[in-house]
Amino acid sequence: MRLQGKVAVVTGGGSGIGHHTCLQFAREGARVLVVDILGEKAKRIAKEITDEGGIAEALGEDVSSEEGAKNIASRADNLWHRIDVLVNNAASFHHKSTEEATKADWETVLKVNVLGTSFCTKYAVPIMKRQKSGSIINVASINGLVATSGGWMIYNATKAAIVNMSKSMAIDYAPSGIRANCVCPGMIHTPAMETLLTQMGRPERKQKWTFWDRVAC
Question: Considering only CA atoms, which of 59, 31, 12 is closest in space to residue 216?
């Protein structure tokens, strides 16, 4: 087990990509703090891990709140006295065009996707600096690299921001022994995507899943 004794914090860990990220970290030996705004979902995933013999704790917290992000880092530090990996996975999906997007839409997506990534990193980094090691993994999207059509403007903008934020973090924290990387998944079959496709009135897309059916639920 490659991560024996390590501590991983995964935001948005209650479903989809976050869910399976939590499971894989645990299977590699890490102690996992499963964070989700819906605490019951976080508890369900933590129990799934402990039922398999792993170590996990659940935390219901909102990453878009700076106080919430501070609580996440404090909880991991209080439990296990370190944070080896921070996965900034929590995201808000808003399918709105430039003409449709309201101030409230912008604020919702920016708070979760951009500020949430920044706040969680802000409070995890001092713990990583204390250890002189750590890894930050920011989950962006292919939408952050290639603008997609059909009303994804807000989401595209925030994911592009995360791509560049990750580059800045990598430069800033390398001298402290902390790595920062960004992953940009394409479309993956997750509960959030199912809900979004339904809202968009595109249920036919659900019949076209191929490879990704096997990696998310």
Answer: 12
